[in-house]
Amino acid sequence: MIIEKLALVTANSASLQPFYSDILGFPVIRSEQGSFTVQAGWSELTFQERSDEADGEHYYHFAFTIPENKLPEAKAWIEARVPIGTEAGEDVSYSESWNSHSVYFEDPAGNILELIARHTMDNSVERPFDPKEDIICISEIGVPTADIPAAVEHLAKLGLMSYKTTNGSFNPIGDDNGLLLVVSTGRRWHFTNKTAESFPVRVHIREAGGLSFSSNEHGLTIENIN
Prior knowledge:
This protein is α+β, with helices and mostly antiparallel strands. The chain contains four helices and 14 strands. Strands 2-3-4-1-12-13-14 form a seven-stranded mixed sheet, with helices on one face.
């Protein structure tokens, strides 16, 4: 599943843009009052200022794929710029079922970002890690919901199927290239003390077109968009 575009909402896009352009080095391809878009490999990432006045944090979890042999160098690169997440004294996450290694960190808005090296992918490179070349794409976006089975069923009708290990609170959809992380609202995000909460997401998937995710107390609303 190829995530070509991801659009998220934020409280203040002007304060967030320097993190993505200057700290992470992503090229800014669009910038206007209240929004900006950066290029992350083959994916576009847009932040749009929220129109509501609700209090409280407003955050997402999403991940960037890097070459499968570059996690140590990528970790050194990112931890020289921002603190990285830890859990049980470890600062690198290993998934046996996914055969992957990851590091986690946050942007100034509290979004939970991840660099993931998937050893199932044939994308190793024999040169020093270069974020301009080696952040390959956005490969995960969390979509929390109160009703996982309903969301999974809806996505299956669009041809988007479950990926590897699933359980009652976690059901990833897609493949190694890209995943929608359908998780239970309130589930703790790995390597953080934050729980999964549902906020509006717009994503363009090559295989399924544009999708909009929003939620209420009954579950996730998934709509096709242009």
